[in-house]
Design brief:
Chain lengths: 261, 284
């Protein structure tokens, strides 16, 4: 797969008086697996929202799939439809994303909104239920699910439409170790799919499994961009970006000290 | 020295009354939903019917109850609702606790003046105040109360024998606009999230209470919980809307429903529709 997924040039975004992104420039090609690393408040979630056209840059220029990411462009029905078909975002809080009465309805929501025919929706649901092990939960209400199950349903509800670009906001937040391993396994399976994956996380333990490239954000700006192994082993960078603890005297620096949730 | 305990309440009477009261009420609300879900999952007459048929039949029977001008027919309809409940595994004890008592108290309070104010044949006189009860007043109060109890029982049967998502899909397939169905669905879905939030807020408050609260402190606590909940629900609604847009929502909700009505469903619906039709025909 060739082409550009995202091209951000000197992008800025502010929530009222707080500037969340300040001069972000980055380019992500189609098929890349990228981890956005940064401490809380570094601008990761905001950047994902800009990538999913849920918010728009107030400075600079942003492009997705070679088209401008602007409010006026997204107001055009055809542009919006084409974009939503190709880009999917898994929210950090599954309670935000799982708004339907049952798991089955949740899976059906995206395809139905994208205008799929009902037989095709049913077939896709059957595949998703099997792939994510959700068949026993199909008729359950999302509020009755565990945290891990909710995350799985949230991911399945996005992947069911087979988006070319998958954006994930803190996918392992508040998960127990088993659910976390389960989710990482699903994401690791995506390696051969050719899908572009952008994951915002501060869980350093999972980065090598799910991404090849890491972009470090610090106070709304890109602090580093490079191969995952290189970034994770730059202890100074990790420390400056508040991704690891300041090591105490007599204890070795541990790049995974802030990892896990 | 007594061992400290960390259970439901190890606090003063006033605090137990207020904070624990809120927790108990919130837990009761959640357990009410759970009970409804459990009875919907049981085997029974109504549980086995097509949800669309149940919605339509309930509507027909409610129309019958409101259209009738005969107390005997109203009593029959009420008896029918109780019979359907029994065949669906819902006993009179649960009906009286969940439906009848509340309706009786609320509707009873509303119709009580009618017993004395509607002019007609006097049948009794209240000893101290000297108010006169009339036959016509009692009859009109009985009608209002009977209709309310019958309609509430039928509505309760519908939601207690049908999973809520199926009720929503039945409404959608019967022509109720999709946005209305979506709002009903989301309300049900997020009531639990907000209930959970409310419980956590009250629990967190309780864990920090050191001594009895005064009345003004209790009011402030309640108001702060309400305020925080309102703020959270506003933030949540904005986030949910964003999540919907991210998945292609453009103002029109599309639903997937695949119910199949069998002959027994049609027979049930026919019988239910026959009730208001017969009542209206007799009135005409």
């Amino acid at each position: 797969m060739t082409g550009t997924a995202f091209d951000f040039r000197d992008v800025g975004y502010a929530y009222r008086s707080h500037r969340a992104l300040d001069g972000v420039s980055l380019r992500i090609d189609l098929g890349e697996r990228v981890a956005l690393l940064g401490a809380n408040g570094s601008g990761k979630s905001t950047l994902l929202r800009l990538m999913d056209a849920l918010a728009f840059a107030d400075r600079g220029a942003a492009f997705a799939l070679s088209a401008p990411l602007s409010e006026s462009a997204m107001q055009e029905e055809a542009v919006n439809f084409a974009f939503r078909r190709r880009v999917g975002l898994v929210f950090q809080n599954p309670d935000v994303q799982l708004f339907n009465p049952t798991v089955l309805d949740e899976l059906a929501f995206g395809p139905l909104q994208l205008g799929w025919e009902k037989p095709r929706v049913r077939a896709a649901i059957a595949v998703a239920l099997a792939r994510f092990g959700l068949a026993p939960l199909a008729d359950r209400s999302p509020h009755r699910l565990s945290g891990g199950e909710k995350k799985r349903v949230a991911l399945a509800s996005i992947l069911i439409t087979e988006p070319e670009i998958l954006l994930l906001d803190e996918p392992t937040a508040a998960l127990d170790p088993a659910s976390r391993a389960d989710l990482v396994g699903v994401l690791a399976q995506e390696r051969g799919s050719g899908r572009t994956i952008v994951v915002a996380t501060h869980d350093l333990d999972i980065v090598e499994d799910i991404a090849d490239r890491a972009i470090v954000l610090d106070q709304g700006a890109v602090a580093a961009d490079g191969p995952v192994a290189e970034i994770l082993h730059d202890i100074g960078l990790m420390r400056r970006s508040h991704l690891i603890f300041e090591p105490r005297r007599g204890r070795p620096a541990d790049p995974t000290a802030m990892g896990g949730s | 020295m007594a061992e400290p305990s960390y259970g439901r309440c190890n606090c003063g009477t006033r605090r137990r009354g207020f904070v624990n009261g809120v927790v108990v009420a919130l837990e009761a609300a959640e357990s009410h939903f759970l009970e409804a879900e459990r009875s919907a999952a049981r085997r029974g007459l109504l549980q086995g019917l097509d949800p669309r048929i149940k919605v339509a039949a309930t509507l027909a029977l409610v129309v019958g109850a409101t259209a009738t001008t005969s107390l005997a027919v109203l009593a029959l309809l009420f008896g029918l609702a109780v019979g359907l409940a029994a065949l669906s595994g819902i006993g009179p004890a649960r009906l009286s606790r969940t439906v009848w008592l509340g309706v009786l108290l609320f509707t009873g309070a509303v119709v009580l003046p009618a017993v004395f104010l509607v002019p007609g044949d006097p049948i009794a006189r209240l000893p101290l105040v000297g108010w006169t009860m009339t036959l016509q007043g009692l009859r009109s109060a009985a009608f209002v109360l009977g209709r309310a109890e019958t309609a509430a029982t039928l509505a309760f049967l519908l939601v207690s024998t049908t999973p809520w998502p199926h009720v929503l899909k039945a409404l959608a397939s019967l022509g109720v606009p999709a946005p209305v169905v979506a709002i009903l669905g989301m309300t049900h879905r997020y009531v639990f999230v907000l209930l959970q939030s409310a419980l956590q807020l009250v629990e967190a408050r309780r864990s920090r209470i050191m001594r009895s609260m005064t009345a003004s402190q209790r009011r402030r606590t309640l108001m702060s919980v309400v305020g925080v909940l309102l703020e959270r629900s506003l933030a949540l609604s904005a986030e949910v809307h964003m999540a919907m847009i991210a998945r292609g929502y453009r103002g029109e909700v599309r639903l997937l429903h695949d119910f199949r009505a069998r002959p027994v469903d049609w027979a049930f619906l026919s019988a239910a529709v026959a009730v208001p039709v017969a009542i209206l025909a007799l009135r005409a």
